[in-house]
Amino acid sequence: MSNLNYTIIGDNLPAVSIRLNRGESIYTQSGGMAWMDSGITMTTNVQGGLMKGLGRMFSGESLFMATYTSESPDQEIVIASTFPGHIISIDVGQTPIVGQKGAFLCAEPNVVLNAFIVKGLGAGLFGGEGFVLQSMKGSGMVFLELDGSVVERVLAPRETIKVDTGNVAAFEDSVGYQVEMVKGFKNVLFGGEGLFLTTLTGPGKVWLQTMTMPSFAKRMVPFLPKSSSK
Questions:
Q1: N or C: the chain end with fewer CB closer than 10 Å?
Q2: 3-state class (DSSP) for residue 95
Q3: Number of folded domains in the chain?
Q4: Is 225 part of any domain?
Q5: What is the CATH number of the domain that holds 72?
Q6: Long-range contacts of 113-119 (CB under 8 A, 24+ apart)
Q7: Is position 127 within any domain?
Q8: pTM of the model as a whole
Q9: In-domain check, residue 53
């Protein structure tokens, strides 16, 4: 079990404050740090090697990761979320997890971050945000930045829940993940939702989010200034 000393601060624009003792480290994608004490040093590298770095790029992260290591006792580093929402903390030594594309915020060095490719032609062609996910396993704490408000559900064995693909924030790797087409011609044309839904099957915990960045951006388009042609 991880003994990392951290506090999640803020409301819907959150950050995680981590206090590192001498020799302790945390890594995040380049540019993720908001502020830190002077006793912390930074090194940038391809965490886990080139192939794992390329895999991370497909899952929405940077090729290069920044590792912050404390050279003095009780040094604070703060890593902020990039979008309104919530930060959740998970000990992957207790339960490996799969997160949505771009969910990773930061983690302890022994957390392994990889791309998670959803199997199945339907998921690949039509799953949208659900096609390439992020696998997080190993040991230590990982922090995820999720959009909007977050709801946790614990699914019993063979219990299922149908979710719009973008609202699946994360789930334990014991949970089954499958993309299926919405049934019914009228539902497809007039239902107002996407053509495909994600089915999550227990056992395991799932984290659902009430907002997605693509849907938020789509709603903002009508309010953006339009360029005028001369």
A1: C
A2: coil
A3: 1
A4: no
A5: 3.60.160.10
A6: 113/47, 113/48, 113/52, 113/56, 113/61, 113/142, 114/48, 114/52, 114/55, 114/56, 114/59, 115/55, 115/56, 115/58, 115/59, 116/59, 118/177, 118/179
A7: yes
A8: 0.81
A9: yes
